[in-house]
User: What shape does this take?
Amino acid sequence: MLLEGKNLSFKYKNTDYLFENINISVESGEIVGLVAKSGYGKSTLSKILAGYETPTKGQVLLNGKKLPNKGYNPVQLIYQHPEKSINPRMKMRDVLLEAGPIDYDLIKAIGIEEDWLTRYPLELSGGELQRFSVARVLNEKTKFIIADEISTMLDVITQAQIWNVIIEFVNKRNIGLVAVTHNKHLAEKICNRIFYLEKENRG
Ligand SMILES: Nc1ncnc2c1ncn2[C@@H]1O[C@H](COP(=O)(O)OP(=O)(O)O)[C@@H](O)[C@H]1O
Ligand SMILES: [Mg+2]
Assistant: This one.
């Protein structure tokens, strides 16, 4: 499978273009880095690639077609801020169950403790919550993952642990991964190739 962002330009209302004419693609089984400084539009581009924001110009295609707007999204976005993407009124067990049956080996590998499952999102730290937003996209319906700075709120050991689980999962299931980060060294360590969102792409 192929996920392509073609000639993407984006501006928020009443602002200049954040970026113009970006072409970025990722194939199944590939790990592509998306690297830029803070404020350059990484989170915006991540949302566009997952279909949660509409580009001002250009289009996002999955195998040459528009992303489906019904059912499970095969392009899953892990948000930079997990508290924005997890329903505060749901217990963590139900958050996971929404994505399918719970894989206890997987959640253990990600460092989720079983008694967290009976808690609400507000009863977890940002890093603990982020592990749930990783766990729920690692399922068989996901074909591409856009991981937007998922490790910034985790300590170094947990970061390594979670990236290992994700990389093992995407390799095994032939999933395409876009690893979004301001950390060039992290990207160089885990990615097959890196897309730099630079000043030249900016409006
Ligand atoms: N809804 C919005 N309306 C207007 N400006 C926004 C909005 N969301 C983000 N921005 C601005 O767009 C720029 C890029 O933001 P973002 O995509 O979050 O960058 P990054 O993830 O690289 O830090 C920032 O200057 C930010 O303030
Ligand atoms: Mg961001």
In short: The chain has one domain: 30-53+67-192. The chain has a mean pLDDT of 95. The pocket of magnesium ion (ligand 2) is lined by residues 42-43, 80, 148-149 (CB under 6 Å). Residues 18 and 181 are 17 Å apart (CA to CA).
